[in-house]
Amino acid sequence: MENVVSMNDLSVEDINALIERAEIFKKYGIRELPGEFMISNLFFEPSTRTKTSFEVAERKLGLEVIPFEAGFSSTLKGETLYDTVRTLEQLGIDAVVIRHQDDKYYKELIGKTGVSIINGGDGSGQHPTQSLLDLFTIKEEFGHFENLNILIAGDISHSRVAKSNADALSRLGANVTFLCPVEWAGSFESTDNWDGLLEQSDVVMLLRVQHERHGDDTGFTKEEYHRRFGLTVERERKMKPGAIIMHPAPVNRDVEIADRLIECSRSRIFKQVENGVYIRAAVLETVLKGRN
Amino acid sequence: MENVVSMNDLSVEDINALIERAEIFKKYGIRELPGEFMISNLFFEPSTRTKTSFEVAERKLGLEVIPFEAGFSSTLKGETLYDTVRTLEQLGIDAVVIRHQDDKYYKELIGKTGVSIINGGDGSGQHPTQSLLDLFTIKEEFGHFENLNILIAGDISHSRVAKSNADALSRLGANVTFLCPVEWAGSFESTDNWDGLLEQSDVVMLLRVQHERHGDDTGFTKEEYHRRFGLTVERERKMKPGAIIMHPAPVNRDVEIADRLIECSRSRIFKQVENGVYIRAAVLETVLKGRN
Amino acid sequence: MENVVSMNDLSVEDINALIERAEIFKKYGIRELPGEFMISNLFFEPSTRTKTSFEVAERKLGLEVIPFEAGFSSTLKGETLYDTVRTLEQLGIDAVVIRHQDDKYYKELIGKTGVSIINGGDGSGQHPTQSLLDLFTIKEEFGHFENLNILIAGDISHSRVAKSNADALSRLGANVTFLCPVEWAGSFESTDNWDGLLEQSDVVMLLRVQHERHGDDTGFTKEEYHRRFGLTVERERKMKPGAIIMHPAPVNRDVEIADRLIECSRSRIFKQVENGVYIRAAVLETVLKGRN
């Protein structure tokens, strides 16, 4: 694996191998990689957990992390992303993690420089390490994916996570249902009616309402959204025994999910954060080992 | 000591123990802590000396410092401080140093996550490591606190330092007097008249005029402020032999203090900066050792 | 060498020694310096390659790099550059790399603190490590400087590189010619006519059109500039065998140089980036060794 930019490029075998590696890291700790590698995290959009999660994984792997302030770089002088990455290659950087506002920004990079690209989220496109950590968390819970019923609820059309997860879960044998306001469905088949869904779902995966992408034109107040599409305390009561709640975070409290459910016994929200470190370490290790 | 957020939580014994540890660090160097610790510095307000001072102390203690750009994090997407710190906990972070514009931001954190909180300054509230380094500097100079006369002059009501220092110095046996414009006294008893104060003070501690908090409504030009409340060259001449000048910096030259006094023989301003590294190392060591 | 702020301070012997050290680093790798050094990179203007290049060199030399966010420091509270550097000295920092918008910002620093200053670019003034890496790249190509014809084309008056390079190249025995719009020549003797220049030049060194300094008052559209002063595909064909193309980057594609020439066989643009790491390591090593 030279690059990891989209779940679509990963076979079921690739996915399982990465999850197994993350399980081993979680059980025995993350070991330093032999060899010297330099990496840089190019985050052109704000992020706490993805960026920090990569940073922690990189330090534990013993990588030399070269800081890059996207908001204070030569991209401000109009430098292209290709020129930036090509420059980092010349400086000796082995791999970059990139989050960028443009869909498929990586198309202009893959195969064109010697730097490995790990996608930390592109526009409304893919976010493969988030998908992988979601899958890892589901596998840890249920031991398998076959015939699990996964309900993904929320801002489907703008969500990197929905896109990344949907196809992978289907390929792994799970049944995915989308629930969202009809205006937000994009090209996905979806429902806006909770009837019967909660009772049969093994996983209720909530997505963030991305106020920063919608502006004020969502057509919903926060209260309305919560009442119609959020996981309220009442809805949680209808979930079946053993079913879990997931959310990629950051959470809009009392919008996608009731404040007091965030750390309830069904919630795996903060466990997802923890699992992210192991998955990212697995992805980084796999990509960097492939370079030797 | 699990957290260090306010001088009010530190007993006289705690304060003396931290100062003694800093003295040892200054004499013999800062040693790497056994064990592996990850720390992150969350500065939501600009800072050079406090942030860099912590960074240096952390490196010397051998901690893994995970970068956090407050101005480019998920707090921009509305994430609460609790969720940010809870996320860092899940990523494996042991302790965070936080500077935040809100008074007592730490109330929503202490005891609610497993991350140790070190307060790097809250709103107009506390700034305990600045207080401790001030105390360390005074102790280093005079060998004791009892019956020392400390004059604190300047922007008392907005000053974290005044609040943090006043109570601690009193408990340690020193006599504290405040001098400031009446409008800036807040709830402190103060005078706006220098008569006799300089002649009897062992320490003249100047505070920064916080233009960024006052806006333009201070009611003083810089020249006026200097003339009435600043340490002018003339006033310095009235100070008694052996008395010292302190300032937490950054300094507004020719406002709180005459430009040419900043590095005069009485000034301990840059020594305070140096002492800050040792004090912060002592605080970090104490907090992290308490976690083992 | 205590500081490196301007090419004018470096003798021909100094320049040759630094280039020779960079050659050795390139051949055998950069080794960690004995001793413990702390360094900080103070970039008050956006930069990718200079800042990252220094970071990489510093890590390879085994220095402790203390982060400094210029856009989020006490300079925002009006702190002077002197006070910032003096503060860093007290925190134990040995050397700082500074990029700053003010010409000769270093005048208020040199000899006034114990911190070594390495100039990463001052206003429209000097950029000595860029000059040195340009010289290194030319020496690597031709083995010598004597009687080489160097054409420097572009925004001479705003260019740190033109100023830094011109004098050094002359002292080393090369012949330098400037080509630019007459309005941009500043105090340099220049031509705005390509006739005969391409056929005789060993090096065509292009400079960046600094839109961010000119605003919109350049008087040229990008297309016009390219047609009259850029290295077009047609002009490249007139270059003599063995002649090379250089550019300090970031490049405005199709302005200073045709897009498809950027990675052509004559171009050393990305090799310059690579060489920058070795030159910066040589400068850092020389300055820090001088402190022991």
TrEMBL record, chains A, B, C:
Its EC number is 2.1.3.2. Residues 3-140 form the Aspartate/ornithine carbamoyltransferase carbamoyl-P binding domain. It is an enzyme of class 2 (transferase). Pfam families: OTCace (PF00185), OTCace_N (PF02729). Residues 147-286 form the Aspartate/ornithine carbamoyltransferase Asp/Orn-binding domain. Catalyzes the condensation of carbamoyl phosphate and aspartate to form carbamoyl aspartate and inorganic phosphate, the committed step in the de novo pyrimidine nucleotide biosynthesis pathway. Belongs to the aspartate/ornithine carbamoyltransferase superfamily. ATCase family. This is Aspartate carbamoyltransferase. It comes from Sporosarcina oncorhynchi. The lineage of its organism: Bacteria, Bacillati, Bacillota, Bacilli, Bacillales.
